[in-house]
Amino acid sequence: MPVQNRFAEFADELTEWRRDIHRHPEIRFEENRTAAFVAERLQAFGCDEVVTGFAKTGVVAVIKGRETGSGRTLGFRADMDALPITEATGLDYASENAGKMHACGHDGHTTMLLGAAKYLAETRNFDGTIVLIFQPAEEGGGGARLMLEEGLVDTFGIDEFYGMHNWPGIEAGQFAVLEGPLMSAAGGFSITVKGKGGHGAMPHMSVDTSLAASNIVLALQSIVARNVNPLRSAVISICGMRSDTDTYNVIPDTVELKGTLRFFDKDVGKLMLERMEAVVSNTAAAYGAVATIDHLDGGVGPTVNDVQAAGHAAVAARAVTGQEPVVIDPVMPAEDFSEMLEAKPGCYVFIGNGPSADLHNPHYNFNDEILPVGASWFATMAETRMSLK
Ligand SMILES: [Zn+2]
Ligand SMILES: [Zn+2]
């Protein structure tokens, strides 16, 4: 795997950091140890500024280039949080925090950006300013939104945002760089179906919420199949179904459904929400039941890469690997880096994790071989996007 020689030199150190963070996973807004680990190193590298406690447990650092005449400031972002999953890898550096695990590779993302920080603070071969953003609470915690609300863009004068996620199934150390939509929007919802419980043997005396809820599950798929333009992408998945009875002869009074919406275009999202209201309430009414929808807070928009920024990201990827970025389709998982890309143009790229278990799987592990490659990409982004004259 071709990497800058300087990064090959500290590959062992990067692996050590990554495994240390992996061993001590912390979930949303609890990243105290991880933030301290990051801040301690950023200070040791000699960053010009290290701010802790930004968006609760976030860390932001500034490195000025040898020149700053370009006036340009790039924000490089890594996420630090783990997931509430029990690790099943059996690794000797597996999670020591019961029920918590770095199953999305944010331990690797944090390490790659730390590696880039070490190199950039030492070499400073760029004309402008780099802001290193170690974000808390990416996994459904609204960490990116909180950082923006606390003034991330204006405080540090960020012009463009860049970030990276590892991706199982792409060859280890290869980059995928897409122009336009990369990851979908996501919104969670719950539907409460109310009827009239009763004896399972006397359905005519009840309003059967099981039957109404089952038909709602089916009818919701007609939105994707019949309302959304077939040339656009959309997903509605019902992932949870729970009734207030747990026996074989009682018709439930209430059934709750939980699910997720995914889409790339905001107008598709708006259409899906409108149709959901009509489909859910009218289907329930057809069975004599009443249904209401609650949309969860913390939904995120689609991750859309700026065309020019994607061009800069691809230049850096080619410089690091000596190869063209791989071609992939956009994916339906969502990412709250989307919020940063709504605030300023930028690009989110994927780096191949090789044939590993999938993200969010208890057997998943970040591939240490790609640490120097990802760190190289951040460093090369600084040096090529803001090259010294
Ligand atoms: Zn994740
Ligand atoms: Zn992730």
Topology:
Layout: H1 5-9, H2 11-23, H3 32-45, E1 49-54, E2 58-64, E3 73-79, H4 106-123, E4 129-135, H5 143-149, H6 152-156, E5 160-167, E6 175-176, E7 180-183, E8 185-194, E9 198-199, H7 209-227, E10 234-243, E11 250-251, E12 254-263, H8 266-286, E13 290-295, E14 303-305, H9 307-321, H10 337-343, E15 346-352, H11 371-385
Parallel strand pairs: 3-4, 3-5, 5-15
Antiparallel strand pairs: 1-2, 2-4, 6-15, 7-14, 8-12, 8-13, 9-11, 10-12
This protein binds zinc ion (2 copies).
What key attributes describe this structure?
2 domains; alpha+beta; binds zinc ion; Aminopeptidase; elongated; Alpha-Beta Plaits; 389 residues; seven-stranded mixed β-sheet
Q: What is the approximate shape? A: elongated
Unreliable stretches: none
Largest sheet features? 7 strands, mixed
CATH class of the largest domain: Alpha Beta
**Fraction of residues in helix:** 25-40%
- First-last Cα distance: 29 Å
Order of helices and strands: HHHEEEHEHHEEEEEHEEEHEEHHEH
Mean pLDDT: 96
Strand content: 15-25%
**Which secondary-structure class do the elements indicate?**
alpha+beta
Question: Short summary of the structure?
Answer:
The chain has 389 residues and is α+β, with helices and mostly antiparallel strands. The chain has helices at 5-9, 11-23, 32-45, 106-123, 143-149, 152-156, 209-227, 266-286, 307-321, 337-343, 371-385, and strands at residues 49-54, 58-64, 73-79, 129-135, 160-167, 175-176, 180-183, 185-194, 198-199, 234-243, 250-251, 254-263, 290-295, 303-305, 346-352.
